[in-house]
Amino acid sequence: MDKFFDFDKTLEVMQYGFVRDALIAAAILGLLAGVLGPLIVSRNMAFSVHGTSELAVTGGAAALLLGVSVGLGALAGSVVAAIVLGLLSRRSSETDSVIGVVLAFGLGLGVLFLWMYPGRASNKFGLLVGQIVSVDFASILLLSICAVVVLAVLAVIYRPLMFASVDPDVARARGVPTGMLSPVFAVLVGVATALGVQTVGALLVLSLMVTPAAAACRITANPLRATILSVVFAEVSVLGGIILSLAPGVPVSAFVCTISFLIYGFARVSTRKRVLAH
């Protein structure tokens, strides 16, 4: 146990500037993931998040190859993926197949770009499992700007988007522009997913974007309460994951996904007990 968590060493490492930067970035990311998560769950977009995260890797790998900002590359890749998925999957019946096709193509390109990149292997590995040492002031600035934009747009479209998520047929009949809301929300999710790749990595970004919200939605059906719980669960997962990973030097994503899974497991067990009690 001491090998995996040394309290004194953790406190010592937390004095470094890059760790404080990572915690700030993680807190912003947890807020974004927590707010978007319940809508992702209610709209059954978990697979879409996974596909978008893989395309963020493709964009990040292309950025590594070109020698430009990995964060901007991942952001560009995920936004392009969100737009493509939104345009190609107009009908819900073909959404999964379209995501699978785009995901496979993008992942193939990403593998090619990573193979062509002559730099350090740790940079390639960081795209998959996260790399908190890569978080700097520029990353926090980009994250902050994107978070403000995403939350501002979401505030404008939240009510009609929630209506369309709960009952799309009635919303369409009432004149809600569901055809426009879906791709806009997909882009918002793509931006948040790309920002998560740099912290927790593409392979486990679902643990932050979906799992906390899934746990919150198990506990309550109230949208406001679910959003608040989702933010709390996301913050605990990502901040707790970073702090626990400091001493052993284990990739952050290993702890983030474990904490979020435990929260989800607890939510399922507690709600099941409540149902059986009634």
From TrEMBL:
<dbReference type="GO" id="GO:0055085">
    <property type="term" value="P:transmembrane transport"/>
</dbReference>
<keyword id="KW-0812">Transmembrane</keyword>
<protein>
    <submittedName>
        <fullName>Zinc/manganese transport system permease protein</fullName>
    </submittedName>
</protein>
<dbReference type="GO" id="GO:0043190">
    <property type="term" value="C:ATP-binding cassette (ABC) transporter complex"/>
</dbReference>
<feature type="transmembrane region" description="Helical">
    <location>
        <begin position="179"/>
        <end position="197"/>
    </location>
</feature>
<comment type="similarity">
    <text>Belongs to the ABC-3 integral membrane protein family.</text>
</comment>
<feature type="transmembrane region" description="Helical">
    <location>
        <begin position="97"/>
        <end position="117"/>
    </location>
</feature>
<feature type="transmembrane region" description="Helical">
    <location>
        <begin position="228"/>
        <end position="246"/>
    </location>
</feature>
<dbReference type="InterPro" id="IPR037294">
    <property type="entry name" value="ABC_BtuC-like"/>
</dbReference>
<feature type="transmembrane region" description="Helical">
    <location>
        <begin position="61"/>
        <end position="85"/>
    </location>
</feature>
<dbReference type="Pfam" id="PF00950">
    <property type="entry name" value="ABC-3"/>
</dbReference>
<keyword id="KW-0813">Transport</keyword>
<feature type="transmembrane region" description="Helical">
    <location>
        <begin position="21"/>
        <end position="41"/>
    </location>
</feature>
<feature type="transmembrane region" description="Helical">
    <location>
        <begin position="137"/>
        <end position="158"/>
    </location>
</feature>
<feature type="transmembrane region" description="Helical">
    <location>
        <begin position="252"/>
        <end position="269"/>
    </location>
</feature>
<dbReference type="InterPro" id="IPR001626">
    <property type="entry name" value="ABC_TroCD"/>
</dbReference>
<keyword id="KW-0472">Membrane</keyword>
<keyword id="KW-1133">Transmembrane helix</keyword>
